[in-house]
Amino acid sequence: MDAIFEKVKEIIVDQLEAEEDKVTMEASFIDDLEADSLDVVELVMELEDEFDMEIAEEDAESIKTVGDAVNYINSNR
Amino acid sequence: MLTEKVALVTGASRGIGRAIALELAKEGADIVVNYAGNKERAEEVVKEIEEMGRKAISIQADVSDEISVKKMIKDTIKEFNRLDILVNNAGITKDNLIMRMKEKDFDDVINTNLKGVFLCTKAVSRQMMKQRYGRIINMASIVGVSGNPGQANYVAAKAGVIGLTKSTAKELASRNILVNAVAPGFISTDMTAELTNEQKEAMLKMIPLAKLGQPEDIARVVRFLASDDSSYMTGQTLHVDGGMVM
Description:
The structure holds 2 protein chains of 2 kinds. By secondary structure, chain A is mainly alpha-helical. Chain A has helices at 2-16, 37-50, 57-61, 66-76. Chain A contains 4 helices and no strands. The mean pLDDT of chain A is 93. Chain B has helices at 15-26, 39-51, 66-80, 103-131, 143-146, 152-172, 190-193, 197-205, 215-226, and strands at 6-9, 30-35, 56-60, 85-88, 134-139, 177-184, 237-240.
């Protein structure tokens, strides 16, 4: 779980140019990390590639925070 | 120049699509020739492109079918590792007066000419977003702007393509993906050969340049939209119609 968080965090920092200490499990991509809706779509694409999985569009829509992404990957990988 | 660019042209085995595929290849692009049914003619286009020293492959796909479209894009990227230019050209007609138009004729034309553009655009957007580069060029039609009796389904689809072009342009602009449309007028192809002489004469009277266009007239405008010469344009529909609709 920690390893997944660290990897997700790395991708978010890179993709959204977010400050590292702002990337917490509770952080919302749009409200806290200044992403727009297209950034979130792109981030999900990047996570799919990194973790070699496919995230269904219905599921992707419910990923709103860093924690949502980490938990999703943790339980679907 | 389009050197090292990869272009996918739907409906490229004949008519305007074929002319576009050849024109982009002439500028240096490698080409995916999509076709629905005519493998032989698609292979002829592939051969012509290869003779210019460019790479080309043909891929069969029904643009109105999502699974088929996804596979085509996957195969394209597998072959060329990128996709820079998508030309949504595939189209059909099933003309009739509204009073006589069957529901299926309406649906078929909307599915290929409008939904097909959506499906192909959706399928390439991931790759183009990653590349931070893309050019999507949609074939609309001048009748999508002006209306045309006997073509309610076709006109509705083409007007839809113009709207879809604008929305896609707005959504993808921040990722350096430019989306424009071309609205051909009366172009000499198999599709227009089906028109009656009466229809043709009536149309010629409405064209200030007083002649039909050739597929190459459209292809050269597509080449412009595919190139960096149009890098400050997105969401536009260019009328290439001899002045028919202004």
